[in-house]
Amino acid sequence: MQPDYSVTEAAARAERRGRRRGEMTVAAVARLAGVSKPTVSRVLNGKSGVAPDTRQRVEEVLREYGYRRPAAVAPSPGMEVVFFGLESTMAIEIMRGVQDVAGDRDLGVGFTDVAAFGGEGRPWAERLLARRPAGIIVVHSRFTAQQYAQLSASGIPLVSAQPVNPPPDAVPSVAATNWSGAVAATRHLIGLGHRRIALIGGPADQLVARERLEACRAAMETAGLPADPQLIHTGRFLFEDGLELGTILLRMARPPTAVLCGDDLLALGVYEAARRAGVHIPGDLSVVGFDGITATRWCGPPMTTVRQPFREIGAAAARLLLQLIMEDPVANTRVELPTALAIRASTAAPAPENASHHGVDSARSESRRA
Q1: Annotated region Disordered: where (predicted)?
Q2: C-alpha–C-alpha distance, residues 360 and 277, integer Å
Q3: Residues 27, 61: contact at Cβ < 8 Å?
Q4: Strand, helix or coil at 209?
Q5: Angle between the 264-277 and 239-250 helix axes, to the nearest 10 degrees?
Q6: Is 134 helix (H, G, I), strand (E, B) or coil?
Q7: What is the CATH architecture assignment of 7-20+68-171+313-338?
Q8: Helices and strands: H and E segment counts in the chain
Q9: Most-buried pick from 43, 140, 168, 172 (CB within 10 A)?
Q10: Are 335 and 175 in contact, with CB atoms under 8 Å apart?
């Protein structure tokens, strides 16, 4: 059952939280943490000028005693969505999902683009906390535990949507089933008859990228097809990296018959590498992406990809945030929504082993294009 949340209720909830604070004032927090009241205020407002160990000590007291700001500085009745760049389809679709839920309840939705501030430091956080939103949704977060703690210490409810790496246990999250999506894509290629499958994964420091890559490897090994180390590459989730790594793969003496990519931008880069090499998709090479961005429907040929439910992720994150704002019990703090394999024209059965070599038999490739 979804919470019945309104603008008026937001203010009422904030006031009740303030009344329940009892004796836990800024002065009490300062006394327990062994610091001054101005130091506690700086931590609450996300400001700089506090030593890391001091900040951690204050945050621990705030969490332990459940400090909430008094009603005099009650939050504005709206949600704030924090992005790490607004150029992607993911950001737009997640924002739409948040708006779907917030709009039904006449709630305002604001956004903060961390990239516009040149990093993940405190200037943007200070501005965000000063606005005192009712709740915050952080999208595709690369936060460290310390940065999560900074926002959590403010007492504002927080949810992570599609996190790059797992958030702390205290921060609920909504994401897609990356593992099962990658397994489905791999099984699709194996089912078509591909045996020489290349993998292009995302950044190794991102759990979401490692999970997709390892899922592909696991699916291949389960099918009795251990991945060839020479066919495994990692890069950034960028078109340029897909082009570079795709070119390397297609120049091999025995190039792959299929390429599984960690995201759609990498796959689009492989498309361009194939075009430059005179390699036909899917006649010479099958390509699979991951995410389901709009461009995958328009490219030639339309791309087979694992669709992520970005809009649904945004809506689920907003509903979860409303539960936190309403102080309702949250049964599941780790929500995963299913992905779906969209099979399009970029995948087909591999050509016979001796039919042609990529980039050599251009006449055959040209005949396929005709």
Answers
A1: 1-20, 348-370
A2: 9
A3: no
A4: helix
A5: 40
A6: strand
A7: 3-Layer(aba) Sandwich (3.40)
A8: 14, 12
A9: 43
A10: yes
Residue 231 contacts residue 190 (beta carbons within 8 Å): no
**Residue 359 confidence (pLDDT):** 42
**Residues found in the chain:** 370
What's the fold here for domain 178-303+344-369?
Rossmann fold (3.40.50)
Largest CA distance in the chain: 82
311 pLDDT more than 50: yes
Domain coordinates in residue numbering, the chain: 7-20+68-171+313-338, 178-303+344-369
Query: Which of the four pLDDT bands, split at 50, 70 and 90, describes residue 9?
Result: low
Task: Report whether 18 contacts 69 (CB < 8 A).
Answer: yes
167 Cβ contact list (under 8 Å, min separation 6) = 141, 143, 148, 160, 173
Query: Degrees (nearest 5) of the Cα angle 228, 233, 235?
Result: 170
Q: CA–CA separation, 269 vs 103, rounded Å? A: 37
pLDDT tens-digit map of 132-157? 899 999 998 888 787 788 788 888 99
The Cα–Cα gap between 180 and 177 comes to: 6
What are the φ/ψ torsions at residue 116 (nearest 5 degrees)?
-70, -15
> Cα dihedral angle (354, 360, 364, 366), rounded to 10 degrees?
160
Given a contact cutoff of 8 angstroms between Cβ atoms, the answer to whether 21 and 121 are in contact is: no
Top pLDDT among 86 and 266 is at 266
Q: Which two tokens stand for residue 259?
A: 């390429």
Mean predicted confidence (pLDDT) in 205-222: 96
Selection from 115, 106, 155 nearest residue 135 by Cα: 155
Residue type, 5: Y
Entry pTM: 0.76
Q: Rounded to whole angstroms, how far apart are CA atoms 95 and 79?
A: 11
